[in-house]
Design goal:
about 375 residues; 12 strands; five-stranded mixed sheet; 13 helices; Aspartate Aminotransferase, domain 2; globular; seven-stranded mixed sheet; alpha/beta
């Protein structure tokens, strides 16, 4: 029955009717780290929490359905999810990545480069067909953020998937900013999807979690082995918290997007803003002010927006990427693709849009008093 339902219904119903013993509607939290065996050699359920947990299983099953995959894996953070995926590859592998990329991914890729002799080629994102020219004999995967962070570029994931399949390599997509409510990369041909579930999926700035999803049984078997072996699994309580947060994802994403469109339109007309980067969907945008000197007083002046590093929660956040999320990317690298010291990233929350715009307006007014060089 649920297989025919819309994603809104799948989100709300996640975990319901899974507790056959007590028929609890809210998924129970199973804290036990160990489970009793009835007899020698008989494994009829769970044995150890790292290998499997009933609460985490409910979450993983729900996420697999949402992303139209065969199996999902809940990790202890978004970065743990990325590390799990890259643990599949051998030393000396080559990867192609979108150039505009989250600073944490860039930092991890640099660690992989130094320790495992991985090679990374960064694609500028202008034309998907250019990826063909970047493929080498040792290329194993293309890693794409769409939208990108923080410039909010989007790509034709179906076209990229066609290229990767033609060359026998994997297509990995970071779907954190759009979530399966807006975009389902596996349905567009991708092989693996990763999420920082800390963000929109959890939605309340109170859970640290990551997810990996695949629609390939062979990949799922390998990921399951590595997930258990590495051990960076999500705890029962965080699994339950994430599952609870996901139930309102559809409602939240609709409000995030409605507010973001209002704010993008406002910023586009503001005399102190030179550019607005909004992909047209979702709740994330970034914008550039006319002078770096405006940034600090502007961030100090906001009252409803919070100057913070994360994104995707119900509260509105402002982030200054070059000193926060992207500080590990060298200046010459980030400037080469447009990440300047005048850019601010906004995670637009679910407050009333009128109040958010008033907050930005008064902050611009305060910042303008410092003068523009």
């Amino acid at each position: 029955m649920l297989e025919d339902c819309k994603i809104d219904t799948l989100l709300v119903q996640a975990g319901n009717r899974r507790d056959e013993h007590f028929r609890a509607v809210s998924t129970p939290i199973y804290f036990s780290t160990a489970y009793r065996h009835e007899e020698l050699g008989l494994k009829d359920g769970y044995d150890y929490i790292r290998t499997g947990n009933p609460t985490r299983d409910v979450l993983e099953d729900a996420v697999a359905k949402l992303e139209e995959g065969v199996r999902a894996f809940a990790a202890s953070s978004g970065m743990a999810a990325v590390q799990l995926v890259f643990s599949m590859f051998e030393k000396g592998a080559h990867f192609i990545s979108s150039r505009d990329i989250y600073g944490g991914n860039y930092r991890l890729f640099e660690i992989f480069r130094e320790k495992y002799d991985f090679e990374f080629t960064y694609w500028n994102g202008d034309d998907e067909s250019e990826i063909k020219e970047l493929i080498k004999p040792n290329t194993k995967a293309v890693f794409i953020e769409s939208p990108t962070n923080p410039l909010m570029k989007t790509f034709d994931l179906k076209k990229i998937s066609e290229i990767t399949k033609e060359h026998g390599i994997l297509h990995i997509v970071d779907n954190t900013l759009y979530t399966p409510y807006i975009q389902k990369p596996l349905a567009l041909g991708a092989d693996i999807v990763v999420h920082s579930a800390t963000k929109y999926l959890a939605g309340h700035n109170d859970v640290l979690a990551g997810l990996v999803v695949t629609n390939d049984e062979t990949l799922a078997e390998e990921l399951a082995f590595l997930h258990n072996s590495i051990g960076a699994v999500l705890s029962p309580y965080d699994s339950w918290s994430l599952l609870r947060g996901m139930k309102t994802l559809a409602l939240r994403m609709e409000r995030h997007e409605k507010n973001a469109k209002r704010i993008a339109a406002y910023l586009t007309t503001h005399p102190l803003v030179t550019a607005v980067h909004y992909p047209g969907r979702g709740g994330m945008l970034s914008f550039e002010v006319v002078d770096k000197a405006l940034v600090e007083p502007f961030l100090k002046a906001v009252n409803i927006f919070t100057f913070a590093e994360s994104l995707g929660g119900v509260e509105s956040f402002l982030t200054y990427p070059i000193t926060q999320t992207h500080m590990d990317i060298p200046e010459e690298v980030r400037l080469s693709y447009g990440l300047t010291d005048r850019l601010l990233r906004a995670s637009v929350g679910v407050e009333h849009a009128d109040d958010l715009i008033k907050d930005l307006e008064q902050a611009f007014h305060v910042a303008a008093k410092v003068g523009v060089r």
